[in-house]
């Protein structure tokens, strides 16, 4: 069955890591698949997940997502999953090798930005990031406030209110 190239992929966002863009400067992003159990997918379809403390590590040439919290499926039985278990991420070998090289070179880390469904499959947007210093965070906030003031002033002038 051929896919229609004109059709946009179905994206249903389950969870986002809102603090990631504040605490890290994002250098590059990757879309990864996730190895999950059945009850984890059912819990995600209900919209339950938390990326607040999640991070990714490279172990033995594989990338693992750690501290992702997917609560137990409430209709599950004794076969329910563990909420904070380590989950394997699926990437091409060349992408993994590229990430390992970049992480080893500088003080970079892998941070999940969002967890979503794409065409019925669970995906994670993984970012290669560098931690921000406190003064960088303050500069970003000041820049955002200045841009907001400029937009407000332009809106006032457009309406004729000086």
UniProtKB/TrEMBL annotation:
The record lists the membrane-crossing segments as none
Record InterPro entries: SmpB (IPR023620), SsrA-bd_prot (IPR000037), SsrA-bd_prot_CS (IPR020081)
Alphabetical UniProt keywords: Cytoplasm, DNA-binding, RNA-binding
Task: Name its cellular compartments.
Answer: Cytoplasm
Q: Which GO terms describe its cellular component?
A: cytosol
- Database matches in PROSITE patterns: SSRP
The molecular function GO annotations come to: DNA binding; RNA binding
Q: Name one Pfam family in it.
A: SmpB
Q: What GO biological process terms are annotated to this protein in UniProt?
A: trans-translation; trans-translation-dependent protein tagging
Family annotation (PANTHER family): SSRA-BINDING PROTEIN, TMRNA-BINDING COMPONENT OF TRANS-TRANSLATION TAGGING COMPLEX
NCBIfam families in the cross-refs: PRK05422.1 (NF003843), smpB (TIGR00086)
What family is it from? Answer: Belongs to the SmpB family.
Q: What does the record give as the function of this protein?
A: Required for rescue of stalled ribosomes mediated by trans-translation. Binds to transfer-messenger RNA (tmRNA), required for stable association of tmRNA with ribosomes. tmRNA and SmpB together mimic tRNA shape, replacing the anticodon stem-loop with SmpB. tmRNA is encoded by the ssrA gene; the 2 termini fold to resemble tRNA(Ala) and it encodes a 'tag peptide', a short internal open reading frame. During trans-translation Ala-aminoacylated tmRNA acts like a tRNA, entering the A-site of stalled ribosomes, displacing the stalled mRNA.
What protein name does the entry list?
SsrA-binding protein
**Originating species:** Mycolicibacterium aromaticivorans JS19b1 = JCM 16368
């Amino acid at each position: 069955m051929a896919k229609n190239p004109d059709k946009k992929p179905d994206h249903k966002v389950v969870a986002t890591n809102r603090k990631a863009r504040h605490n890290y400067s994002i250098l590059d992003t990757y879309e990864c698949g996730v190895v999950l159990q059945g009850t984890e997918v059912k819990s995600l379809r209900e919209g339950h997940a938390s990326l607040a403390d999640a991070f990714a590590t490279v172990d033995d040439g594989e990338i693992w997502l750690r501290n992702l919290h997917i609560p137990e499926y409430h209709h599950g039985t004794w076969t329910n999953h563990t909420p904070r278990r380590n989950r394997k991420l699926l990437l091409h070998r060349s992408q993994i090798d590229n990430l390992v090289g970049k992480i080893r070179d500088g003080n970079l880390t892998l941070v999940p930005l969002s967890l979503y469904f794409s065409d019925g499959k669970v995906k994670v947007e993984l970012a290669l990031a560098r931690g921000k210093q406190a003064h960088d965070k303050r500069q970003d906030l000041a820049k955002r406030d200045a841009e907001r003031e400029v937009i407000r002033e332009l809106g006032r002038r457009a309406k004729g209110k000086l």
